[in-house]
Write a structure and sequence with these properties.
By secondary structure, the chain is an alpha/beta fold. Helices cover 24% and strands 28% of the residues. The protein folds into 2 domains: 5-130 and 306-338, Medium-chain alcohol dehydrogenases, catalytic domain (Quinone Oxidoreductase, Chain A, domain 1); 134-282, Rossmann fold. It is globular. The structure holds NADP nicotinamide-adenine-dinucleotide phosphate.
Length: 339
Amino acid sequence: MNDGRNERVNTQLVLRNVPQGLTEIDDFETREVALTDLEPGQVMVEAQFVGVEAALRLIVRDSDEFLFRVKPGDIVRGTVAGKVVESRDASVKVGDAVLVGNGVQKYTVCDAAEVEKCDLEQAPLGAWLGGFGVSGLTAYFAVFSECKPQPGQTVLINGAAGAVGSIAGQLCKLAGARVIGLTSSKKKCDWLVNDLGYDIAINYNDGGWFQQLQDNAPDRLDVIFDNVGGHLLDESLKLIGMKGIVLLCGSTSQYAAEEMSGPSNYIWLGTMRARMQGFVIFDYEDHYPDARRRMATWVKDGSLKLPLHEVSGTIGDFPKAFRGMYEGENLGKMLLKLG
Ligand SMILES: NC(=O)c1ccc[n+]([C@@H]2O[C@H](COP(=O)([O-])OP(=O)(O)OC[C@H]3O[C@@H](n4cnc5c(N)ncnc54)[C@H](OP(=O)(O)O)[C@@H]3O)[C@@H](O)[C@H]2O)c1
């Protein structure tokens, strides 16, 4: 007789305690959970890739200020890409490639309506967490619906070599703009210019980075696409151009800070009749399929790359990958690839 117990055992990642500073490996722990048989309408997904998101550091803070808070004892919030291994819903078949955002775990059991199917003709499975996932869609809508760069304009991307930045820069190039990227090393700068077609890339760990930026933007910056906040945003503001836009996509440098700090050079927004614009990707949810169709044509003709930075491991290796991303290891989207 079936007692409702499934043969598979799940591994979930749980927050053990509120991190201080950058996360430590033992701020997290794994737990094994017995799986039960599916109810009608449910599916089970086996994860093959786990997306590593910078914003996780914001939502594990000891604060209810931010949406989607994760508290000690909670499963770590995250999205996985994988294959359906069991289904009790006619709309989803075993073998379907899907995304599901119910936390960092090996198996996800959920209602069929909670999974999103991935068309692997458009992009490989891992890319559905990167350039074809929220990161790439963020870049797409932030560029085309908010920043709207024009041919001949100059765009600065802060956090240029990350998941969002690496796509945003390429999209600004497709729009005809001149693109400057800021990142943390020569290796990343070379990659941005040689592989992704950035016009200029500047290493902010070089003492003279601001001077280099100024020299490369003699007509100032029409767009600052900011992923990091903090000092880099503050300094960049001195170069915002007339009627320029500063797109506040993310503030990675502030997520782990005890006291967050804002820009002091905002005076340039007034002088230059420029504006800062907030942005949240979820406002564009209804338009994701259109964006993906358009991006798929660029991927096919070679004008858009979907860079993935895969590290292999198990669910228990997620904290290492997460920390590595904060230490700037990633070129493109950081993914944990499960064996
Ligand atoms: N608004 C939205 O709807 C939305 C959606 C998705 C993501 N986001 C935000 O977009 C930003 C980028 O996300 P992502 O997924 O593309 O992450 P990511 O850029 O791939 O990864 C984080 C990168 O941030 C940089 N970094 C880490 N600590 C830093 C510090 N203290 N100062 C400056 N840079 C630092 C590192 O790059 P370097 O080596 O270049 O320093 C690191 O590789 C995040 O803030 C995220 O929360 C917003």
